[in-house]
Amino acid sequence: MQTRPKHIAMIMDGNGRWAKKRLLPRAVGHVRGSSNVRSIVQVCVEHGVEYLTLFAFSTENWRRPEDEVSTLMDLFIQYLDKEVGEMKAAGIRFRMIGERSAFSASLQERIASAERETSQNTKLHLTVAANYGGQWDILKATQLWAQENPNTSLSLLEPQELKNYLSTRELPDPDLLIRTGGESRLSNFLLWQMAYTELYFTDTYWPEFDRAELEIALDWFSKRVRRFGQTDEQVLEEN
Ligand code: FPP
Predict the structure, then answer these.
(1) What is the pLDDT of residues 38-75, one digit of tens each?
(2) Which CATH number belongs to the domain containing residue 112 in this structure?
(3) For residue range 18-45, what is the model confidence (pLDDT) as tens digits?
(4) Is residue 13 flagged as an active site residue?
């Protein structure tokens, strides 16, 4: 039985509705959401979580109004400018997954530099998924595999091998997914990687998802019996 998740994935939903409820522009919700990332990272470190993967921008989010897309990009830049030094000092390793070529040159540079600067850290692996989609990840991995194995039939490709071609190849699969904002769906997040992930949904909007809320989710997770396709009896025997 597992008590603490090694890897938490989060869908940070509800920034817009948080703002709307207060008659504020959606951008304000994203600003609050962005500062909440910082607090949640800190709580994860305190709880000994080793991997945290955040869904910041999906491949579908480009369909939002232009000014909202640009607010989200600016917040990502600001986050990196503000946090890299601190992440470096706190032992946090930063990674980004997703198609980064669509981002501005300055954002791409900051991402690369944050990854480089923190590459020796191991305390918490913080991964931001931006311009990311689960289907994109699986397709890209399959294409990459085919490129590297031009003389092998695709019918010989095994799940364990495909895993090594996904953008998350350096990360274990998530143990726990937390989605804020009241929706109960995966929205094209880590589709392959979450095959056996425990799914936790809360109505709380992301800007209000705080330490207490995270601790409730951790407590919920600690009570889950993870079977990975086995029976209860087999799991009991193993533990
Ligand atoms: C969903 O809320 C949230 C997003 C699409 C963006 C998440 C981004 C942040 C929290 C800030 C930037 C992140 C980093 C890592 C600096 P929504 O707008 O879909 O909310 P709604 O469903 O209430 O409209």
Answers:
(1) 999 999 999 999 999 999 999 999 999 999 999 999 99
(2) 3.40.1180.10
(3) 999 999 999 999 999 999 999 999 999 9
(4) yes
Asked if residue 198 belongs to a domain, the reply is yes
Residue 72 lies in a domain: yes
Q: Is 61 a catalytic residue?
A: yes
Cα 169 to middle of ligand 1, angstroms: 25
Pairing mode, strands 176-179 and 92-97: unpaired
173 pocket-lining for ligand 1 (C-beta < 6 Å)? no
For residue 47, tell me if it sits in a domain: yes
Alpha-carbon span 20 to 18, nearest angstrom: 6
Q: Is the CB of 30 under 6 A from ligand 1?
A: yes
| φ and ψ of 50, to 5 deg | -95, -25
Range of the domain at 197: 7-238
Residue 124 lies in a domain: yes
CB of 14 sitting under 6 A from ligand 1:
yes
Count of structural domains within the chain: 1
For the entire predicted model, the pTM comes to: 0.94
Using the mean position of ligand 1's atoms as its centre, give its distance from the Cα of residue 56 in Å. Answer: 6
Phi, psi angle pair for 8, to nearest 5° = -110, 135
